[in-house]
Amino acid sequence: MAVKSTSPSCFDAHPARGTGECCTPLSWWSVACGAGSNVSDREKPSRGRFNQHLGRGEWAGIGAVVGLLSTVVALLAWLFPVKDEPAVSPPPQSATMPAGSSPGPSFTQSADASPSTPSATPSGDTPLPTSTAAPRQEVVHSSGSPRLRSMSEHGTYDGEVVNFWEMDENRKRYGTYDGSDLVLNSSSLGGANGTVFAPSAIGKPTLQECSTISGGAWSSLVVAPQLKAGTSYCVRTSEGRHGKLTVSKLSMCEQYLEDEDDRERFTGDICVLEVSFVVWK
Predict the structure, then answer these.
(1) Does one domain contain both 164 and 254?
(2) Is 159 a domain residue?
(3) 152 and 245 share a domain?
(4) CB contact at 8 A, 173 and 165
(5) Burial class (CB in 10 A: 0-12, 13-18, 19+), 256
(6) Domain range enclosing 258
(7) Most buried by CB count within 10 Å: which residue of 115, 125, 142, 267?
(8) What is the pLDDT of residues 164-220, one digit of tens each?
(9) pLDDT category, 3, cuts 50, 70, 90?
(10) Burial class of residue 191, CB neighbours in 10 A (0-12, 13-18, 19+)
């Protein structure tokens, strides 16, 4: 017995098509086009006809479903992004040393470490001897103890007055600068022909000290207040030799002159200067 379909059948919608022909590819699956119809298996539409008879509306519905699924997938990918796992480097392989062997030297050095300076001391407790410059050997070229006078005790300039002296040859000069090194003036001891003086830092000048004094420390005059007994100076003579000069005695004119008027007239002047010197080769 055929069951009548409650929905409009193909025959109702298209009566002109005749009995046994369905209007849609799905009609042969429906009850209206099923066992109660006169459609034979040969006349049933094939699978290809099923695809061909899909209407424009059915394709639009399928496209909408696919688009909706794509949108959902994209939204899920945005909400739950896949995070890349950081690459984990394997731990450094420590070299396995054979038992009983001593570790070798380490070549690891920090970035701010300064390069090591090799020690000058060899292994052991004995330090290396410190090398110092050997002091220059002092060989005497000349020496003397002149008594320089600017005037006699009578306040006159006689033939006995000696106020020039040559240190390199240790001899006196009478009233001339030629060949002289020391000149006694009324207020100072002067150097002639390039002779200069420099105070000693150690009090007892040596050849090593005098030969290393800088040029600015030398002077061609030693004034009377600096000519105290026992004071020593480095000397560089007119011939370029180094030596030392020590003040033995200083006599001012107000103490040395016999006449009271002369003492008053020459007060503050140097009358006698006794020194001793050594000139090294």
Answers:
(1) yes
(2) yes
(3) yes
(4) yes
(5) buried
(6) 140-280
(7) 142
(8) 999 999 999 877 788 899 999 999 999 999 999 999 988 899 999 999 999 899 999
(9) very low
(10) buried
pLDDT band of 80, cuts 50, 70, 90: confident
Q: How many CB atoms lie within 10 A of CB 274?
A: 16
CB atoms within 10 A of CB 119: 9
Regarding whether 57 and 171 lie in a shared domain, the answer is no
Residue linked to tokens 């002092």: 138
Q: State the residue for tokens 């026992």.
A: 230
- Choose among 224, 241, 225, 242: nearest CA to 233: 242
Is 158 a member of any domain? yes
Query: Are 256 and 170 within one domain?
Result: yes
How far is the first Cα of the chain from the last one, in angstroms, to the nearest whole number? 156
Strand ranges for the chain from DSSP E: 140-144, 147-149, 164-166, 171-173, 182-184, 188-191, 196-199, 221-223, 232-236, 242-252, 270-280
As separate numbers, helices (DSSP H) first and strands (DSSP E) second, the chain gives: 6, 11
User: b/e for 67-92, b at 16 or more Cβ within 10 A?
Assistant: eeeeeeeeeeeeeeeeeeeeeeeeee
Residue 248 lies in a domain: yes
The sheet with strand 188-191 has its strands ordered as: 171-173, 164-166, 182-184, 188-191, 221-223
pLDDT over 70 for what percent of the chain? 59
Retrieve residue 105's tokens. 């030297």
Domain count for the chain: 2
Question: Model-level pTM?
Answer: 0.53
Does any domain span residue 122?
no
Cα–Cα distance measured from residue 211 to residue 138, given in angstroms and rounded to the nearest whole number: 11
Do 158 and 56 lie in a common domain?
Answer: no
- What is residue 235's three-state secondary structure? strand
